[in-house]
Amino acid sequence: MAPARRREQLLDAALELIVERGYAGVSIEAVARSAGVTRPVVYDHFAKLGRLLHTLLEREERIALTQLEQVVPVDPGELSPPELLLRGAQMFLEAVCARPTTWRLILLPIDGTPAIIREHVEMTRAQMQRRIAALVRWAFAHPEFPQGLDVELAARSIMHLAEEAGRMVLTDPERYTPDRYVEFASSVVELLWPPARSQG
Q1: 88: Cβ–Cβ under 8 A, 6 or more apart, which residues?
Q2: Residue 200: is it exposed, middle or buried by C-beta count within 10 angstroms (0-12/13-18/19+)?
Q3: Nearest to 73 by CA among 11, 135, 155, 153
Q4: Where are the alpha helices (DSSP H) in the chain?
Q5: Residue partners of 123: CB distance under 8 A and separation at least 6
Q6: Looking at residue 99, what DSSP letter applies?
Q7: Residues 48, 39: contact at Cβ < 8 Å?
Q8: How far apart, in whole angstroms, are the C-alpha atoms of residue 11 and residue 105?
Q9: Cα-Cα end-to-end distance for the chain
Q10: How many Å apart are CA 50 and CA 28, to the nearest integer?
Q11: How many Å apart are CA 29 and CA 139, to the nearest integer?
Q12: 182, 92 contact by CB (below 8 A)
């Protein structure tokens, strides 16, 4: 197996172990056994467990940020606020379904999560909160919205609702599907922003 592919295999094995057993259940021996290799193979790529976990954190953070940058764009382009909201809801929940193990680390913190990982998750959340607030501010500038709405609370509400939807999609995917959430969001949007106004 090519070195780069082997590294990814070992990182995948470590991620699965974390989700199944928590951080206390991860060791070089456990990763080697899960990946079907010997301990020296793991040490060839990661000198110690801390380095493996740090590399895994960087990879999962990069994947999550790449997905979120599509969900919460800096520039909404030609999209209307309702279109942006519904598109974002669909893309976010599809991202959660596409990388459930990544999003479990973020949305369903595991007992014993190291402080550095908690800090990275909170930094990512704060970054997304700022981007959501910027889009809410842009949406509220439209004349259709009542004046004086609280941008910060609206942005926080959107983020909390999205995170809760992600958790439910992860923990009870048959009952709480992305399509169900998007249909609900669409109904709420129509109450706040009737179709006639969307078209205008």
Answers
A1: 71, 72, 162
A2: exposed
A3: 135
A4: 3-21, 28-35, 39-45, 49-71, 81-98, 100-107, 115-140, 151-171, 178-192, 195-199
A5: none
A6: S
A7: no
A8: 14
A9: 57
A10: 10
A11: 52
A12: no
Token look-up 């990946």 returns 35
CB-based contact 100:20 (threshold 8 Å): no
Q: Which of 26, 19, 49 is CA-nearest to residue 110? A: 19
What is the predicted pLDDT for the residue at 194? 60
DSSP state of 110: P
In 10 A of CB 46, how many CB atoms?
20
Q: Mean of the pLDDT values across residues 145-163?
A: 89
Q: What is the DSSP letter of 74?
A: S
CATH of 57-199 given 3.50.50.60, 3.40.50.720, 1.10.357.10, 1.20.120.530: 1.10.357.10
Tell me the C-alpha distance between 141 and 122, whole Å: 29
Give residue 195's pLDDT band: very low, low, confident or very high (50, 70, 90).
low
User: Residue 199's pLDDT is what?
Assistant: 47
Q: What is the pTM of this model?
A: 0.84
Residue intervals of the chain classified under CATH 1.10.10.60 are 1-47
Regarding predicted confidence, which is higher, 115 or 17? 17
- Taking the CA atoms of 174, 57, 37 and 24 in sequence, report the sign of the dihedral they define: negative
Task: Give me the mean pLDDT over the 70-79 stretch.
Answer: 91
